[in-house]
């Protein structure tokens, strides 16, 4: 199966779109927790399963969630959260301090849902695509056999959110499955026309 | 019926909870799932606030609803973190073990296309079955893990026992060999000893007879005969023989006795006859052991004894206990590098208990090692010098006496072993 390649122009356009939608995501989160949020420039890359598995090399120092989405685009959102920043963040989110284990899980799921939802829906809206997000789930990469993934190539769009006041950082990655890449490129081409 | 007319019926009948609220947290409507459980109909609930309906959960619901309105997309709650947001009874009141319903909740904004959300819809999934199944699974996994750990531990003990057994078999066969050799030597040395003894008696008689004979010859007054006799005696060095013969016999007897003693100690070593239970004086055993160890101890340590007077006799296996004292005293002596003291005390601190303490002023034992000293084959001595069985055997012997042995030690200060033995009166309680 030949992989769909994404051109530099398409990449630039996608990056611009992501910039806007990620900005909206940051804005949403900022309103929810009344904290200033900074974000990185979105990174877009095509990846192989092996490269993908390297995302999880930080292992135990991070919390991970995953959230699948369906519709015009199919794929999964991944959220990587630095464990050390989560306690301070919990305080900003009105949880008891320090949060209990289940409170922390709830917080992680909440935050990733907010970020992933805003990112994906913002992007979909600009590209006039329709998508529904399924509930986020906690994800333990140590229990996953990355050598056994069934795909050859995926598109990753990642951005880092940082809540400076709470010393909290999170990386959101939109992972698009191969069959959706051409759909995405189609829409970008229409915008570029 | 049109589709628009049909939908409200479907929604009412859905097996999931549906509740629509406005931004003021007032319920707009809900379906039968809510109505039946709370006994408030769709019509009655219209306009009532969540704060009023669910006062305890309101703060949580408010946060979730705010988030859905604000971000214009779904927010979720799971049974793992919040099992019972709505206080509904279990869907299995008769057959189920759980009393409250486990719920997954989704809140999503409702809006016309391209408009800000006007309502939030709360969907409640009853996941009691999955939740209790999952919990049961987890409980079983935990149990399995425990059992696996227990098995591991058992296996470890089995291996340990096996090697202990192997070693004790080895010791037993060495013991048997020693006993066999001892037995084989015992017979010949027995008759050698008694024969020499008889020979000595005979020789005494014979010398007396010889002396009488000489005197008889002397008393005849026949000078020629007497001269001949003296010549013969001189020629055969009889005077010298008469002296040397006794040395030879006595030395042989001594040698035979030494061989007998060695055979006896070989038998003792092999523990043949040594496991007999009888009443014994513990201090006597300690003294005997000290005598045996004299050469090992006397250049290194001064032994201080503190025996309580009029100690009761202990019903025990004296030879086995001597083995224990031997181990403790040898260790104590070896712990002392240059010169030191060994304190031995035997007391009855309470009635029915005999307490034996052996304390040295040696190098002491570190904490980590203290935990291992009673393990078989554990030794700090160089390879070949210690079997690592001494304290393990001692521990076994003390346990056989239903007693207890404990160690307390400070590195560089010394070590104290404390043995507590119950004073058992009833000979019927042999234990083994």
TrEMBL record, chain A:
Instruction: Report whether Ribosomal protein shows up as a keyword of the record.
Output: no
Q: Which GO terms describe its molecular function?
A: hydrolase activity
Signal sequence region: none
Instruction: Tell me the keywords, alphabetical order.
Output: Chemotaxis
Q: Which SUPFAM superfamilies match?
A: CheC-like (SSF103039)
Which GO biological process categories is it annotated with? Answer: chemotaxis
- Location of the CheC-like protein domain: 10-44
InterPro entries reported in the protein's UniProt record: CheC (IPR007597), CheC-like_sf (IPR028976), FliN/MopA/SpaO (IPR051469)
Question: Which PANTHER family does the record cross-reference, listed alphabetically?
Answer: FLAGELLAR MOTOR SWITCH PROTEIN FLIN, PTHR43484
What is the protein name stated in its UniProt record? Answer: Chemotaxis protein CheC
From TrEMBL, chain B:
Task: Please list the GO terms describing molecular function.
Answer: phosphorelay sensor kinase activity
Coiled-coil portions: 134-171
EC number annotated for this UniProt entry: 2.7.13.3
Matching InterPro entries: HATPase_C_sf, HATPase_dom, His_kinase_dom, HisK_dim/P_dom, HisK_dim/P_sf, PAS, PAS-like_dom_sf, PAS_4
Record's SMART domains?
HATPase_c (SM00387), HisKA (SM00388), PAS (SM00091)
Quickly give the catalysed reaction: ATP + protein L-histidine = ADP + protein N-phospho-L-histidine
- Ranges for the Histidine kinase domain? 180-425
UniProt entry keywords in alphabetical sequence: Coiled coil, Phosphoprotein
Concerning PANTHER family, the annotation shows: HISTIDINE KINASE, SENSOR HISTIDINE KINASE
Which protein are we looking at?
A: histidine kinase
């Amino acid at each position: 199966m030949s992989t769909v390649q994404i051109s530099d122009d398409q990449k630039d356009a996608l990056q611009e779109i992501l910039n806007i939608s990620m900005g909206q995501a940051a804005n949403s989160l900022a309103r929810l927790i009344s904290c200033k949020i900074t974000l990185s420039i979105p990174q877009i890359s095509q990846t192989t399963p092996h490269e993908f598995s390297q995302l999880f090399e930080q292992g135990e120092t991070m919390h991970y969630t995953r959230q699948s989405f369906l519709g015009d685009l199919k794929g999964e959102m991944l959220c990587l959260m630095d464990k050390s920043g989560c306690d301070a963040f919990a305080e900003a989110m009105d949880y008891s301090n320090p949060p209990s284990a289940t409170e922390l899980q709830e917080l992680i799921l909440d935050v990733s849902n907010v970020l992933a939802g805003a990112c994906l829906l913002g992007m979909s809206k600009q590209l006039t695509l329709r998508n529904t997000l399924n509930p986020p789930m906690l994800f333990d990469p140590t229990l996953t056999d990355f050598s056994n993934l069934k795909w050859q190539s995926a598109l990753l769009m990642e951005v880092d959110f940082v809540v400076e006041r709470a010393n909290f950082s999170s990386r959101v990655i939109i992972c698009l499955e191969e069959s959706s890449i051409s759909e995405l490129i189609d829409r970008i081409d229409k915008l570029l026309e | 019926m049109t589709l628009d007319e049909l939908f409200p019926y479907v929604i009412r009948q859905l097996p999931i909870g549906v509740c629509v609220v406005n931004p003021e947290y007032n319920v707009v409507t809900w379906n039968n799932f809510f109505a039946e459980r709370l006994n408030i109909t769709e019509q009655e609930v219209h306009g009532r606030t969540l704060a009023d309906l669910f006062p305890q959960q309101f703060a949580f619901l408010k946060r979730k609803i705010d988030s859905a309105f604000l971000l214009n997309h779904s927010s979720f709650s799971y049974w793992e973190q919040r099992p019972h947001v709505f206080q509904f009874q279990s869907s299995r009141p008769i057959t189920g073990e759980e009393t409250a319903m486990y719920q997954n909740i989704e809140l999503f904004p409702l809006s016309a296309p391209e408009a800000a959300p006007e309502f939030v819809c709360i969907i409640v999934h009853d996941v009691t079955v999955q939740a209790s199944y999952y919990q049961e699974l987890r409980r079983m996994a935990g149990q399995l893990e425990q059992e696996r750990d227990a098995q591991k531990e058992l296996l470890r003990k089995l291996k340990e026992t096996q090697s202990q057994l192997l070693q004790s078999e080895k010791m037993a066969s060495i013991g048997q060999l020693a006993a066999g050799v001892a037995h084989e030597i015992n017979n010949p040395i027995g008759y050698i000893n008694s024969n020499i003894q008889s020979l000595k008696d005979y020789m005494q008689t014979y010398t007396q007879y010889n002396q009488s004979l000489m005197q008889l010859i002397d008393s005849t007054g026949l000078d020629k005969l007497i001269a001949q006799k003296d010549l013969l005696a001189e020629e055969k060095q009889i005077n010298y023989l008469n002296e040397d013969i006794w040395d030879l016999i006595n030395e042989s007897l001594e040698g035979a006795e030494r061989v007998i003693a060695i055979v006896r100690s070989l038998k003792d070593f092999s523990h043949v006859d040594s496991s007999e239970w009888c009443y014994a004086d513990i201090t006597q055993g300690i003294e005997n052991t000290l005598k045996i160890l004299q050469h090992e101890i006397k250049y290194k340590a001064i032994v201080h004894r503190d025996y309580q007077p009029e100690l009761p006799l202990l019903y025990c296996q004296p030879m086995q206990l001597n083995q224990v004292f031997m181990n403790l005293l040898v260790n104590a002596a070896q712990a002392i590098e240059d010169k030191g003291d060994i304190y031995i005390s035997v007391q009855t601190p309470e009635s029915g208990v005999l307490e034996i303490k052996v304390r040295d002023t040696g190098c002491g034992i570190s904490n980590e090692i203290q935990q291992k000293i009673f393990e078989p084959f554990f030794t700090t001595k160089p390879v070949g010098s210690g079997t690592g069985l001494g304290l393990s055997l001692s521990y076994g012997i003390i346990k056989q006496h239903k007693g207890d042995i404990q160690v307390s030690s400070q590195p560089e200060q010394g070590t104290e072993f404390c043995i507590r033995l119950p004073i058992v009166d009833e000979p019927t309680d042999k234990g083994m």
